[in-house]
Predict the structure of ATP-binding cassette domain-containing protein.
Amino acid sequence: MILAAGLRKSFGGFEAVRGIDVDVRRGEAFGFLGPNGAGKSSTMRMIAAVSPVSGGTLRILGLDPATDGPQIRARIGVCPQEDTLDTEISVRDNLYVYGRYFGLPRGEVRQRVDELLEFVQLTEKANAMVDDLSGGMKRRLTIARSLINRPEVLLLDEPTTGLDPQARHVVWDRLFRLKQQGVTLVLTTHYMDEAEQLADRLVVMDKGVIVAEGSPLSLIAEHSTREVAELRFGVGENEQHASKVEDLADRVEVLPDRLLLYTADGEETVAKVHERGLTPAATLVRRSTLEDVFLRLTGRTLVD
């Protein structure tokens, strides 16, 4: 569905995407994971055929965005990072007007609008104005709008940024249903749990390059341990305690507010810390996540 080789994007003297290779297969959910400024959105804009490629090759649905931009845009859906809804018209009309942009017949658009309102659970809000919607409803309406042309590929740039946990789960459910219907999903996110929930396969980007690729589980297995023990000491004390516990774990990361001990058995590791007479102000044992993978690969957290 998407094939990139040595893909580059430059803005003047700044190279935002520095020669990446990407292969997205039909029907999968593919994720770009990384911090702000990693090059995710620049890559998505090239895939959406709205930003020219600076170097390398890119094919979308077998087409070249440099020459086949209109044909590509007619067959994909784009859910941008910011909601760009028309606040002057109703929920229903937001979908209807957008459908007419694609040249769809009026009757077909009206039927499609009803289908999508039901799909994103906004039928009861069909005649409401956009300003009357909650953040989660606006996000679902934006997703519905991106589906009006029955796209083969749906691009989602940070699909749940700013939503509360309940609204995020509703959006995840809708996206999972789309994938079951055969729509290929390509998303960017800086939420680790979102990537783990939605992506079959993902790449981790940092500073314009891909630093790892695989399924969420395979990346965690390859680059981290099964569990992590988090230790919080007093302000300014975490670094000085690191040397006292480094032999208890496969790896120790020192963060400003805590120590991360990477180990196969977190509870056993915490017990050994206490046996040495160390008393952290707080402890937490959890399984490894994609954030731990990112910390290992880049030396910084995703929110940096």
